[in-house]
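Consider the tokenized backbone below.
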């Protein structure tokens, strides 16, 4: 099992701190991708237009492509954390024939409360930023919503 984090350079400090915590918990390196070309680099390439749900260049350039480069030509099974109670989410999945995608939470019928229980039982708990925002990625992400407590 290998772990990676495709950072954009536009995360809040709390997100990066939680990756460090996860790394300590797992006792194994979480490889950081995108250490050279960050969000600002691709923003300039796109004439300073922010990404949107229709023009999602951020996910393609900062998540999908770095992962495909990291995987190379190896036969890879990729595990994606989409839950069973998120039927609307399909994820941005690779079309490379060497990459097989599994959705373990969905396959096992695990919903939000189950994930919160797993995190609490592990001792990691929920990241603090989920007290007020719905996503862990970029601070300006167009998918996030303001929250009032336990939703995510
Ligand atoms: S967190 Fe939002 S803005 Fe950042 S890469 Fe993901 S979809 Fe794009």
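A designed sequence for it:
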């Amino acid at each position: 099992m290998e772990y990676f984090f495709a950072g954009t350079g536009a995360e809040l400090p709390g997100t990066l701190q939680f990756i460090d915590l996860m790394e300590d918990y797992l006792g194994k390196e979480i490889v950081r991708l995108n250490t050279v070309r960050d969000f600002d680099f691709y923003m300039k390439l796109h004439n300073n237009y922010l990404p949107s749900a229709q023009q999602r260049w951020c996910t393609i350039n900062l998540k999908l492509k770095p992962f495909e480069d990291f995987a190379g030509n190896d036969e890879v099974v990729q595990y994606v954390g989409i839950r069973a109670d998120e039927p609307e989410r399909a994820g941005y999945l690779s079309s490379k024939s060497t990459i097989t995608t599994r959705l373990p939470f969905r396959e096992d019928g695990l919903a939000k409360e189950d994930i919160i229980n797993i995190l609490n039982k592990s001792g990691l708990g929920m990241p603090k930023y989920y007290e007020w925002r719905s996503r862990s990625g970029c601070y300006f992400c167009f998918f996030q919503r303001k929250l009032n407590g336990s939703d995510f």
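The chain has a mean pLDDT of 90.
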